[in-house]
Design goal:
This protein has about 475 residues and is an alpha/beta fold. The longest helix has 27 residues. The chain is globular, with a radius of gyration of 23 Å. It comes from Algibacter miyuki.
């Protein structure tokens, strides 16, 4: 069967592609920016890349007419502006575009929306479901709560809180109940629902067997990691204060933290588990899902991470717009050093950031990260998805990967920190020389003053980093 997959570069989409290919489907992967799409070579024969934007009706005309099924895995909870309106427009455009195809079944992954009063985020999800259900095709909505898996936003936030804070003074919404589900089970529900007549024109809640409060989830996580944790809830934390609490303690962005806080005040418990019987799935328990997530982390098998989505930084751009580093009106710090071992130097470059750090002046990098977080930026807490491999579109601390070719020996990063301008950092190995170039395009007088203010630190940090990489 030929299946159209929206959200192919997202956390869920990346993991669903190999599942669908293994099931024998031909997958049309929809992406806004093809340069961010890096599927394994083993999948290349079974997938086709299609560039489209759900907000651009013209681009939707390129959807193949002969598709059999489609997945809608798009949402914008961290976007600027009125994301509810954007999501509704995207859903309508998608539904209308499918009128010109032979699609039989559309599956949408939503959130559990059983309460009368919903957060803005969950209300938008429900509204999208209503719009998609109006189409001339069979429609299935799968509604999930907290998803537990290596690289998921929920898992990483829980991990940050538990591993960093032995004692937590928390808002009262930690007593709200939810029903977490493992990412492997989400994949099973998504793949087995497609083309199953028993799921047509229905909505189902999907969840694991455990109904827990968020507090219980944190404490159980601590037990799984052999960490003793104490949690005290207080009624005085407003949603805004709670959002700042999550933002400063964890690696999440403020917009995502705010959306999550408002959603966490709403109970997300499954109405029933009849979908388990229909599809023959026995979901993992919360503790089993945690063990599986850590197994993937320890073996460096994280297939996707929420941190690599643009929502983790609040930015929204095409990589092609920034891959050509400008020169006019820019400040540059370019340094070149001879290297003894090309392979060793490139391996060091490909391990940069995250737990490895930046090789020199680590304390200064950390201070810059704290300052960025203080002014609403991403800081250093995102780290990196994989300690050894780099793909275009990945996040590395407060940088975004624009270009990465290990054989060529070139890595180009774009800054996502708060700056009065735009910044690039490039590493290029040619023959036996490593060139390291920092480029800054200032925005007005503030940008120029910023460059001269940090110039002494650049001389210290960049010189030391280049030396460490070349040795």
């Amino acid at each position: 069967m030929k299946i159209l997959l929206t959200g192919s570069t997202g956390y869920i989409g990346k993991r669903l592609i190999p599942v669908l290919v293994e099931a024998g489907h031909e997958v049309i992967c929809c992406v806004r920016d093809p340069k961010r799409f890096n599927p394994p070579e083993s999948l290349a024969k079974s997938i086709t890349v299609l560039q489209l934007d759900l907000l651009d009706q013209g681009s939707l005309e390129h959807i193949p007419k002969d598709i059999d099924g489609a997945y809608y895995l798009v949402h914008s909870m961290s976007s600027d502006g009125d994301y509810k309106s954007l999501e509704e427009t995207s859903a309508k455009n998608f539904r209308n575009a499918l009128k010109n195809t032979s699609v039989n079944h559309v599956v949408y992954l939503s959130g559990i929306v059983n309460e009368t009063e919903l957060s803005k985020h969950l209300s938008s999800r429900k509204n999208v479901e209503i719009e998609l259900a109006k189409g001339d095709y069979n429609f299935t909505a799968l509604r999930a709560g907290i998803i537990i898996g290596s690289g998921s936003a929920s898992f990483e936030i829980i991990r940050d809180l538990v591993e960093k804070l032995p004692i937590m003074i928390t808002p009262k919404w930690l007593n709200t109940k939810c029903q977490p589900i493992g990412i492997s089970d989400v994949m099973a529900f998504l793949s087995k629902s497609m083309f199953n007549p028993e799921t047509y024109n229905e909505n189902f809640d999907i969840g694991g067997p455990d109904v827990l409060t968020y507090k219980e989830m944190l404490l159980n996580f601590g037990k799984a990691r052999n960490l003793k944790r104490r949690i005290y809830t207080v009624p005085v934390m407003t949603p805004k204060l709670s959002s700042y609490w999550l933002y400063f303690v964890t690696s999440t962005s403020y917009k995502l933290a705010s959306s999550l806080v408002h959603s966490m005040k709403v109970e997300v418990v499954c109405r029933d588990n009849r979908i388990n019987t229909i599809l023959g799935i026995t979901p993992l328990s919360y503790n089993e899902a945690l063990k599986r997530a850590f197994s993937k982390i320890e073996s460096n098998e994280i297939l996707s991470s929420w941190k690599d989505a643009y929502s983790s930084s609040g930015l929204n751009f095409n990589i092609s717009e920034f891959i050509q580093v400008p020169s006019f009106g820019c400040f540059k710090d370019s340094r070149t050093k001879a290297i003894e071992n090309r392979e060793a130097s490139i391996n060091k470059i490909w391990a940069i950031g995250g737990n490895t750090g930046w090789y020199y002046g680590t304390w200064l990098w950390k201070i810059r990260g704290y300052m960025d977080k203080l002014f609403g930026g991403v800081g250093l807490r995102r780290g990196r998805t994989n300690p050894a491999t780099i793909n275009v579109g990945d996040s590395i601390d407060f940088w975004r990967v624009l270009y990465a070719d290990k054989k060529e020996g070139r890595l180009l990063l774009f800054a996502e920190m708060k700056l009065p301008g735009e910044a690039w950092l490039e590493f290029k190995v040619v023959n036996n020389k490593l060139t390291q170039t920092a480029t800054f395009r200032p925005l007005g007088l503030a940008g120029r003053l910023y460059w001269y203010a940090v110039l002494p630190f650049h001389g210290f940090i960049f010189k030391g980093m280049l030396k460490a990489l070349a040795e």
